[in-house]
Design a protein that fits this description.
By secondary structure, this protein is mostly beta strands. It has a domain of 69 residues: Immunoglobulin-like. Helix content is 3%, strand content 37%. It has a four-stranded antiparallel sheet with strand order 1-2-7-6, with no helix packed on it. The chain has a three-stranded antiparallel sheet with strand order 3-4-5, with no helix packed on it. The N and C termini lie far apart (76 Å).
């Protein structure tokens, strides 16, 4: 059985220059860096737990628009060089990761809160109160 492969027109001309271009940010172990989320619903609100390890609090951006939630982060990983040390190998990576998803109800942005601790972003997103339906009398 033949194996399918993706044709890369730049591989022959510029083998190192374009390798990994437009690929997801990868950790030193080679795994793709992504935002993994758990979403729970209870008592008129959603709770979102998003794993974003190794990112500084100020590099995380959360936007809420209606029922849509967008989480993005700028990843910067660099090794520090100390005096008297000789660096034999350094694996650094940087880039941005993002995740956008929609929830079943509109969210009340004014009451939403976010907390980042131990690499986990916790969002508490209250649902917007739906206006009570009113029956109209027909005259």
């Amino acid at each position: 059985m033949s194996r399918l492969s993706v044709y890369d027109p730049f591989a022959e001309v510029f083998p190192e220059l374009f390798r990994g271009f437009m690929q997801p940010v990868r950790t030193a172990s080679g795994e793709a860096l992504e935002i993994r989320v758990d979403v729970k619903e209870s008592n008129g609100e959603y709770t979102v737990h998003a794993e974003i390890p190794g990112v500084k609090r100020e590099d995380i951006n959360v936007q809420v628009d209606g029922n849509r939630v967008s989480i993005s982060a700028e990843v910067k990983r660099e090794s520090e060089k100390k005096d008297g040390e000789r660096v034999l190998r350094s694996e650094r990576y940087y880039g941005s990761v993002a995740r956008t998803f929609s929830l079943g109800s509109d969210l009340d942005e004014s009451k939403a809160s976010a907390k980042y601790e131990n690499g986990v972003l916790t969002l508490t997103l209250p649902k917007k109160a739906t206006p009570a339906t009113r029956r109209l009398t027909i005259s």
